[in-house]
Amino acid sequence: MGLSQQDDAVAGAVLSTMMWQGRSEEVLEMLRPQVKENILPLDASVLAFMVRSGRLDEARAYRADHEPELGGDTWFALLPWCQAAESALALDDHPLAATAYRLLAPHAGMMGCAGSGVAVGPVDGYLAMAAAATGEHEIATQHADAALAQCRAWRIPLAEQWLLDQRERYGF
Predict the structure, then answer these.
(1) How many domains does the chain have?
(2) Is residue 100 within 8 Å of residue 108, measured between CB atoms?
(3) Which of 69, 88, 111, 169 is the most buried (most CB within 10 A)?
(4) In contact, 115 and 80? CB cutoff 8 Å
(5) Predicted structure pTM score
């Protein structure tokens, strides 16, 4: 059986592995050319990997020129919604954080993913980031606690450590 986006699925799995290996710069360079060529909304991914690579000034400039596609609830949607929340916190972007929170809230308790090939950790972790970005620190802490419990229950220590690092960095 073939799927019309099977190449995207394989690429996503490879990029996801690279992400968890801490190779954000390489992921960013692989994603950039895909933004214009791909039918999937990748602006939020590019923005998130700029943030993960420490390129905050570049991310701010990119954000000023690109409104991340966060529309429809599709098989791919949780990924850009999660990445928008992460970027919003790093960039102190309250409107993007509020939008990401609204979109992610019905999916609390789930894995942030794009299909089966890309998993970025519990949605609750990204809800924590969006809440922190809008100044809702108590709510952010509650979501982060839930996300850490999920990381432990799901046995995903890389996501757990990443979330712990985010909590320390941003104080939620």
Answers:
(1) 1
(2) no
(3) 88
(4) no
(5) 0.92
